[in-house]
Design a protein that fits this description.
Layout lengths: L2 H8 L11 E6 L8 E8 L10 E3 L5 E2 L19 E5 L5 E7 L9 E6 L5 E6 L8 E5 L4 E5 L5 E6 L6 E5 L5 E7 L5 E6 L3 E6 L4 E7 L6 E7 L4 E6 L4 E4 L6 E3 L12 E8 L2 E7 L4 E6 L4 E6 L17 E5 L5 E5 L4 E4 L11 E5 L8 E7 L4 E6 L4 E5 L6 E2 L2 E6 L5 E5 L5 E6 L4 E6 L3 E8 L2 E7 L3 E5 L15 E2 L4 E10 L2 E8 L8 E4 L6 E4 L7 E8 L2 E7 L15 E5 L4 E6 L8 E6 L4 E6 L2 E6 L4 E7 L14 E5 L2 E6 L2 E6 L4 E6 L4 E5 L5 E5 L3 E5 L55 E2 L2
Antiparallel strand pairs: 1-2, 2-36, 3-59, 4-32, 5-6, 6-7, 7-8, 9-10, 10-11, 11-12, 13-14, 14-15, 15-16, 17-18, 18-19, 19-20, 21-22, 22-23, 23-24, 25-26, 26-27, 28-29, 29-30, 30-31, 33-34, 34-35, 35-36, 37-38, 38-39, 39-40, 41-42, 42-43, 43-44, 45-46, 46-47, 47-48, 48-60, 49-50, 50-51, 51-52, ...
């Protein structure tokens, strides 16, 4: 998973009994096709009870997703090994997948598919763990072994079985990160964060820990057992070595100088004809060919676009296959170290390679197949007949992690999901259902441009324009994207100003400083400008009186420490492209975000979990108050949101939904969470993400004590914010002593801004 999603997923949200009871019945559409998921939601709790009505709208995006690199039955392993191909004892070919669940309520999903009939033969959940970090097929036992990133347990599925068995822990305190099966049936595993190697004997059930392979290497990312030893690859450095199982001795094998010492990982190991293919995924990607007899590097494949090569061709054991960076499949002669590009160019990244006998019309010989990580798809080619193979099986899937929520120009609500979802989802309040819009990728932010929808995608840093008057047809409407470039890959903030769309973006890993771009969605014209605040990232934008007001995060891309100590509020002139004013709303806050204007022309925002009110007329922070005392570890604060409704302010921060009277500064916790990405629909209802995969609706109009007459900011509030200890229902974690108290929250002094030339 990408860094931001990993950070969010790492915050293991504890399920909290909702303040009301929500009952949901969902009929999900085929996740691979554009369709409608019909949701019927009923909500108990009324205005008379004083409890806010919250409705669970279900999981907008259902997906079957294994990590993108898998293994071949005899080809070796790669990081995040989550697919395999093998045979039953009777010789029938099957593909196996370990699909991600989610960290709230769905464990990882194991599925097996008969490649001849296309039928799913098993589809079940693992006993524990939701991620998918290791899988290996053992031909010795016709069994599949797997692990997750949530503990050391090794799991097993025997062909023809109906369940997955927990074999117990491999190494205490470690997560299984790579698996491989030796010809004798021994299972080899690599771990994180210790970077250890272990073995498992299926006959005795015994584990053996060989310890850390290389000092300083915290991941074992690839394993390849041979007759003489076990080869392995690592991360965070692209190191390569061999373990002697008899003595436990490790021999590090230096990579060629052009690839040695790179920050990255060995992405896969595979073998053919006495040659080892070492996939390297770093600043310079390639497959390096190691000769096991001469123990020397004999070739480099620069256009290597997959993690491993296929097992040897049954008709010519010197030949293996891999995918090039141009998506074409290449036949590679391991004896002559030369390749031939084929016309076969599947639009998919190979995971598990295997040769299988389908024994059906059109597939008379051995068919080369590989798995693809999205929707458990399988691609293949019979070179004898020239017939292509494709299968997308029916599996359960899981609710995809919601990355962002946004309101469209109409009444619709849009939800963007993690990594490579089948699409983004659109909620239609009229029909009360979700519709899947295919092909969107991981959406990081939404905006409105002249009544149409714009959005940005990770990791390409692409911008899209969707004409709402025409049907969704990815590639046509929205049409080809415009790439920001300049090492920007997360477009997170959107605001229309002076006939253009302003975009705030997060830089790529290892870089500080996010840009502001001015984009004309109608023409595609784009101008990119340097970070408005040096070494910081603009994460929230609001236009006002000819200026673009923005808020920043001190964080840049993942893998680089921030140099700034406090996030800022700034004003940027879209004509001169200069910052004309900036202020620190709260010293030490990592994120300032959630900017929103009230009806009096005051700007409100969140500095981490501190609410502040800013006068645009006098340009000073009028007041600030802490909403939550718990540490907020958000990376960018983009899930922190503020909206105004019926004279009240609502905010999501620290995974909770707050309701604040901006006249009195009295705050209540409206929903104890998890809650994030608060969004106001055009119909007046509020929506938020209930991490990780659900969307909830909150209707403030049904809550007593709200008024439309008061305008925020008309009169100052009292000296201190009044926090009423609104006790949540039974089951809230922690004791009442840990809940916020009035005495712990004080009034902050206003701070003046500083002008910039």
């Amino acid at each position: 998973m990408d860094g931001l999603a990993a950070s969010r997923a790492g915050r293991l949200a504890i399920a909290v009994t909702a303040m009301i009871t929500a009952v949901v019945t969902t009929t999900a559409a085929d996740p691979a096709a554009t369709g409608t998921a019909t949701t019927r939601a009923t909500t108990t709790g009324t205005a008379a009870t004083g409890r806010p009505p919250v409705t669970n709208l279900g999981q907008p995006v259902q997906r079957a997703l294994s990590t993108y690199q898998g293994i071949g039955a005899s080809a070796g392993t790669s990081p995040g090994t989550s697919a395999a191909v093998g045979t039953t004892p009777s010789g029938d070919p099957e593909a196996y997948f370990l699909n991600m669940g989610n960290y709230s309520n769905q464990n990882a999903e194991f599925a097996g598919v008969d490649l001849t009939t296309g039928k799913t033969v098993i589809d079940t959940r693992l006993p524990s763990g939701y991620s998918d970090t290791g899988m290996a097929y053992s031909s010795a036992d016709h069994a599949v072994f797997m692990g997750t990133g949530e503990g050391p347990d090794l799991y097993e599925y025997r062909s023809g079985g109906t369940a997955v068995t927990d074999l117990g822990p491999s190494i205490a305190g470690q997560d299984i990160w790579a698996l491989a099966a030796a010809p004798d049936g021994t299972i080899w595993g690599g771990t994180y964060p210790g970077g250890d190697i272990f073995s498992y004997d299926p006959a005795t059930g015994a584990f053996h820990n060989y310890g850390q392979a290389l000092k300083g290497e915290t991941y074992i990312t690839a394993l390849l057992p041979t007759a003489t030893g076990v080869y392995f690859g690592t991360q965070p450095d692209t190191d390569f070595g061999e373990l002697d199982p008899g003595t436990g001795a490790v021999t590090q094998i230096p990579l060629p100088s052009a690839y040695a010492g790179q920050a990255g990982k060995v992405s896969g190991l595979s073998a053919a004809d006495g040659r080892l293919f070492v996939g390297v995924a770093a600043s310079t990607d390639a497959a390096l060919v190691w000769d096991t007899s001469s123990r020397s590097w004999v070739a480099t494949i620069d256009d290597f676009g997959s993690a491993t090569v296929s097992p040897p061709d049954p008709s010519n054991p010197d030949d293996v296959y891999y995918q090039s960076t141009s998506d074409h499949i290449v036949r590679y002669d391991a004896a002559t170290l030369s390749g031939q590009q084929l016309s076969w160019a599947p639009n998919a990244i190979p995971g598990a390679w295997a040769w299988v006998g389908l024994g059906t019309s059109g597939y008379p010989g051995q068919t080369l197949v590989f798995t693809f990580y999205t929707s458990d798809r399988i691609y293949g080619q019979d070179f004898q007949s020239g017939t292509s193979y494709y299968l997308q099986p029916q599996v359960q899937g899981s609710g995809d992690q919601i990355i962002t929520l946004g309101a469209g120009p109409g009444k619709a609500i849009y939800a963007g999901a993690y990594l490579t979802p089948p699409g983004m989802a659109r909620w239609d309040p009229g029909s009360g259902s979700w519709r899947l819009l295919t092909g969107s990728g991981q959406v990081e932010g939404y905006g409105d441009y002249d009544g149409n929808l714009v959005f940005g995608r990770y990791p390409q840093g692409d911008l899209y324009y969707y004409d709402l008057s025409k049907p969704w047809n990815y590639g046509t409407n929205p049409g080809p994207p415009v790439a920001i470039g300049d090492d920007q890959n997360r477009p997170v903030a959107f605001a229309q100003i002076n006939g253009l769309e302003a975009v705030g973006s997060v830089p790529v890993s290892g870089r500080l400083g996010g840009d502001i771009s001015l984009w004309n969605p109608a023409t595609g014209a784009l101008s990119v400008y340097p970070p408005p605040v040096p070494a910081q990232t603009p994460v929230s934008l609001v236009p006002h009186d000819g200026l673009l007001w923005g808020a920043t995060s001190v964080n840049g891309g993942y893998g680089v420490a921030p140099t700034a100590r406090s996030a800022e509020l700034f004003a940027w002139n879209p004509v001169t492209h200069k910052v004309v004013f900036s202020v620190v709303p709260k010293k030490g806050a990592a994120n300032v975000s959630g900017l929103a204007l009230d009806s009096s022309g005051h700007l409100w925002g969140l500095a981490d979990s501190t609410l502040f009110e800013f006068s645009l007329a006098t340009r000073h922070v009028m007041r600030r108050e802490t909403l939550s005392l718990e540490r907020d570890d958000s990376m960018y604060g983009i899930e922190h949101r503020i909206v105004f409704d019926r004279g009240q302010l609502f905010a999501t921060t620290d995974e909770k939904l707050f309701r604040v009277n901006p006249l009195t500064w009295r705050a209540r916790t409206a929903y104890w969470g998890p809650a994030s990405d608060l969004t106001r629909g055009r119909g007046g209802q509020l929506y938020f993400v209930q991490r990780p995969s659900y969307v909830y609706r909150y209707d403030p109009g049904l809550h007593p004590g709200l008024t439309r007459s008061a305008s925020p900011g008309d009169t100052p509030g009292p000296p201190a914010m009044k926090i009423k200890r609104s006790y949540p229902p039974n089951g809230y974690p922690g004791s009442p002593r840990s809940w916020p108290t009035r005495s712990s929250l004080g009034r902050a002094r206003a701070c003046d801004g500083r002008p910039r030339s």
